[in-house]
Structure formats: structure tokens, C-alpha cells
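Exercise (ungraded).
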Amino acid sequence: MAPVFEYAPAPESRAVVDIAPSYGLFIDGEFTEAADGKVFKTLSPATEEVLSEVAEATEADVDRAVAAARRAFEKWSALPGSERAKYLFRIARIIQERSRELAVLETLDNGKPIRETRDADLPLVAAHFFYYAGWADKLDHAGFGRRTTEGHSGANPRPLGVAGQVIPWNFPLLMLAWKIAPALATGNTVVLKPAETTPLSALFFADICRQAGLPKGVVNILTGDGRAGAALVAHPDVDKVAFTGSTAVGKQIARTVAGTDKKLTLELGGKGANIVFDDAPVDQAVEGIVTGIFFNQGQVCCAGSRLLVQESIHDELLDSLKRRLATLRLGDPLDKNTDIGAINSAEQLARITALAEQGEAEGAVRWSPACELPSDGYWFAPTLFTGVTQAHTIARDEIFGPVLSVLTFRTPDEAVAKANNTPYGLSAGIWTEKGSRILAVANKLRAGVIWSNTFNKFDPTSPFGGYKESGFGREGGRHGLEAYLDV
Amino acid sequence: MPTTAPHALSDVTASDATLRRFLHGLPGVDTVGLEARAASLGTRSIKTTAKAYAIDLAISMVDLTTLEGADTPGKVRALGAKAVRPDPSDRTAPSTAAVCVYPDMVAAAKEAVAGSGVKVASVATAFPAGRAPLAVKLADVREAVAAGADEIDMVIDRGAFLAGNYRKVYDEITAVKEACGTSARLKVIFETGELSTYDNIRRASWLGMLAGADFIKTSTGKVAVNATPANTLLMLEAVRDFRAQTGVQIGVKPAGGIRTSKDALKFLVLVNETAGEDWLDNHWFRFGASSLLNDLLMQRQKLATGRYSGPDYVTVD
């Protein structure tokens, strides 16, 4: 039966973005071919349409890019902070001016809904550059260095040198901003490798660097697969490695870097617990659960993928949640009314599918709202599993998809014990109207980010990072400067 | 005999204490989360066929209102004519749901809309302050009903509510409901701007529904803060949950401050995605408004002709 109030298609225009048929690597301020001339295709995950061909970086290209960054470092790091700030402010303004174009581009290349790229990704990208632009001339006052022990002052904090940065496909431009903005503000130069499936927004960012007049070699972008990333982090002239991505790759990188004098920060996987107490603001908790696990199709490292609900309100909350999920609109990511877009790649879709099947095989009860999936592209219906216990694979492994595992608890202590009973420690959520409980529970949770009565809220002033297998180091806020400074 | 709530929750109104326990036991409302959800639904893009449907639906939901000291029978007749046929240049434009007037204008309004299906709603109970003895309020209601009002828009005693005298508020609503008899539907106005907190608005909503309201309504339009997306969303959640628990469906009427088609469409999205499509009908959802209607008509003309007309192409009444 057709809905009474059927929203007509409201697609955002693709005409605002001009995607070239091919792109080179961005090295030393120029786009160049890969050393061996190899290219790979990047697809729109919503339609499997080929968007463009991009160069596939080799080890020789990594050498060239790192050398360019090294050459640029001397002058860039010697600029007064206020001069570096000017470039960053300029980049932030250009991002704002081109935000519609970049939002459409990101939606095409990643598959996430335009509502999210327009209202979340792009505003946060610009905010991150503005925020770190503001720090560039205040580093001496950020609380690093100049320690007055026994009346002596230490040295001012200094940049590390060349940063090799490898970022994931779930928030391509936002993760770029998290990496590049603090690195440049602190006087480092960078070589960044975007994810293989989402290279385009980083290449558009390269164009923004040129538009802003950023000196050559300060930012270099190498597109390619995991081999290029591995070559970058292993390169002997890289002083700092920053990686956001899977825990498995993060461990490999830690092994590569071990024994060198490279500084390393890792932001890895998660299995966030979203804890709902019986005195929670229920309607807002339902929204928070939805935001926690269905924002960006659940492809979020800090997703609230485990719902821990107090047993006394389990049935009532699940009824509300299911009713809410039935209103989610899945489909064309460019449609302004779409809530759930496409999964980023066939590979990721296969992983989500396999883990969901394992959940069923292990006896959890699977539920999805009635939901028609498009025939082309990579799609997965919003899914929740009830009757999940700590022993289920879907309660332990990161799924990185729109799949929620629902567990119950009886007391606050049990909630804390279950929330912490995971190899990860990235995020958690606490839902209660009782302020003292928020503080008490938050103090006992081992997670880098704890939200209370909200979820998946980001702000450049707030540090972000994990415990345990979720990685180490903090990005964002004053803390985020430290990862790029010799203090 | 006062009407008592004939449903699963009737025991909660047994005493002041049980009523208070029930109302204070309702889940809290997180202000930031509620407003974020309302804002997020406000980004829905309603275009082409969906817009045409929504504009006509919104017109059919308007309680076209004049509540001025300067109201005259002539003014009310003009308003009635406008309600019956909002766009004289296009007879396919639907009538509004009702005209809404003061009790002494009910007879004139009734005559103006006679035979059209447009209802006459009357504010009563010493609107807008509600600061009068109960006997006066009830007399106000009876007069309006006797003059032919199809709907009564009462105001609650905010003073009693804020002082925690829930039972007093409850008793007044049931007494007014009784005075409405079987012919008039009762809309209960909370004046949400004076209740101030979302927790209070949720409690007032349940109190009103328990006491027999047919509609719960945000505001009089006479104070600084009237209908907002967030307080209307909250009231839509209340009617949704009340029906789930009791099987009884209650209407919602945001009033005051909704002036543009764009605003009205946002409210319809709230209805659609919160209470659901069962409420997408003027029996269950109304807009208390006056200038909104002309903006809806201008948007309707724009959709039909492809160009904007202007304020001289809609009637001023």
C-alpha cells in the first residue's frame, strides 16, 4: 500500500560537481602520473557506475612524495604560526564556499546520503580547519614545552617533520581534515593516502590547496591501495605516522614502525556500547540509538553497535525502536530525503552479510523493517538482533555496518561490566535523566569518547581516540596538537 | 456526571496522588535531543506532487482564526466566506477545517459557513488567560455550544498546573468536556509557552488526554512563544503513545506563529513521521492560524501556474 504522504524524489543536482575522467597523484604541487602509469577505477557504490580513473601510486611515487614533503618542510616549519594560519583559514573558507560541490562528490564516491555530507561531514571539515588555524600561532601557549622546572624553561614545541597519513573510506574528507589540519598548523608537511574506494575528495582537496596558494610540497596526495599505504608508513624519511582504519592493519603498522624513531598514532576499530537505563528520556534515546548505529550506514568506528538496555524496559524500547526504524528512508544517496545510503564497497557488504548470517546461525533473532533494496549497487537493510549475549560473535566483532546487537542488563554494575567486556575501547553512550548516574558510569567506562543523552556528536574542540585495540593518541582539541609536536 | 476516561489508564486519575505519581513517572524529555530531532525532520525536502498534496492538506487543516477585541459580525462573515472558498479564482482549492472565533461571534460564524461543512470553533473558558471562576468558564462554554459551536478551544489553568494542582486542572477539563455535551469536540490549550519546560508539556498532554480532550493544542497565540516544531513533535509523541496504550486517538493542534507554507509542511512531516499517517486528516490535526492560509494559497497558485502571483491575488479578509 502506497503511503498517504509520499515524498516525491528530491535529488540534489550532480551538475555542481565536475569529475574529470582521470586524476593523477598530487606531488609537489602538481598532478602527475604514477611511475609505472597504472590506474584504477573508483565507483559510485550506489549504482556501480565508474566515476573516474585515478593513478595507483608505487614505491617510487612514495619516494617522490616524501622527498617533496621533506623539501617543503624547511620553509613551511620556519613560517611564523600566523602565516601558516592564514593558509589554513583560506582553505577553511574555500571548503565552505565549495561545500555543496564537495558534499555531492563525497556522496557519489562514498555512497552516504547527501543529508549527512551536507549537514555533518562538510560543516565539520571546515570547522576542523578553522579550529586548527586558530592554534597555529598559539603553540607556545598550548601547554607543551617551556616547562618551568627548577626555574628553567624548556624548548618551545617543534614540528616533527614529514607526516605519512593513511585514512579510511567512511568519512574520506573529514578524516583528511582530522589528519591534515593539525599537521599543517604545527608546521609539519604531509603525504596522505586516501582509501582505495574513496580517492576523489582528497584529490579535490589537492585542488583546494592550489587554490589557496599553499606552497608546493606541503600537502601531497597519493592514491592507491594498501601497498602504497604500507610503503608510506615504512618510508625511512617519514617522521610521523597517523593511521585511521581497521585494527588488523593498525597492528601491522605498529609492527612496521616498532624500533624506528617515528611517532605513531592509531585510531582503529570499536564496538561501542550504548547503555539505556530505565529512567532514560525514551524518545530521545531511540533517536540516539538510531544515530548511533545507522548514521553513515553504521560504517563508523565509534558506532554504538551494542545496545545495552535495562531489562525492565527492553520490550517497550524495542517496540519504539522498531517503529522508528520503519520510518527510515533507504535509497538514492543524492535524494535529500534519504536517511540510509549505500554500503561503500562489495567487499564491505560481503563482510556485513557474513557477520549477520553468523548472528542468525548463533541463535540471535534478526529483524529488519520492510525495506526495498535497489537492484544495482551495494545495499544492506537496517538490521537489529535481539537475544544477543556477550558470547555472540555479533556482540564481539566489529561489523562496520547497519547492524545493531541488543543485549540487556539488570544493574548499573552489570551494564559497566558488559560495556567494558570488549577488546575495543573507543566510544560509549549513557542514557539516563539522572545526572549523578551519568558521572558515576562514565568514570567506570573504558572508552575514549563517552556521550551522555546523545551519540555520534563531533566537534573539533573535543579530543577523539581510543583505549585498548581501538588505538592510541588523540585527534581534535588541544590534545590533537601533541601528536604532531616534539614536546 | 463528569466524563471519566474509559480506558486502561482510568485508575491513574483516582486521586490527586495517583495522578501526580503517574504524570511524574512519565519518561523525561531531553531538550537538546528533542529539538535536534525536530530540526532534522525540518530538513525533509517536499517537492512537486508531494508539495501539492501537502499544501491542499494543510489548507484543509486550517482553523481560520480571528480573536481580536475589534471583531465584528462583518469581519466574521468575511472570514467565514474565506474559509468556505479560500481561493475565489480556483474552486478546486479545499475549504479550511473551521473558523475559530470568540463565543459571542459563534452565531455570526455559524451563519457564514452554513451548509459548507466548515466547522465553527469557539475559544472559551475566559480565553486567553483562563483566570475566571469555574462557573464563569462553564457558562462561557455553554453559551458557545448553545450558539452552535462545533468545537470548543478551552485554556487550562496554568497557575494550577504550575502549582502542582493537577487534579484541579483535570477536574476543570472534565467539567468543560461535560459542558460540551455530545455535539462539540473539545480542544485543550496548554499555553506551552507558559508551561516552559518540555517535561511540563508532556505531563500536560497526558493530563489533557486522560481528562477527555479530543484535541490537545499548544497555544493561544497570545503569548511570546507559541507553536514550535519541538513542542508539537512532543505532543505528537504523546497522542501516539496514548493511542498505543488506550486505543483512543486524540488530535493535535499547533497554534500561533505558523505563517508560511514552508513551516506548515515541516509540521506535516512531523505528523507523518511521528504520529503517522492516521493523523494526516483534519479530523486529527489542525493549524491554528490566520495569515498562513494566504501563503498556502500563493504557493498553490505557484504550483499550478509556475509563477508567483503576489499578495494582491489572494483575498485579504
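Further reading is listed at the end of the chapter. For now, observe: Chain A touches chain B at residues 3-10, 115, 119, 279-284, 287-288, 327, 336-337, 433, 453-454 (CB under 8 Å). Chain A is about 40% helix and 15% strand.
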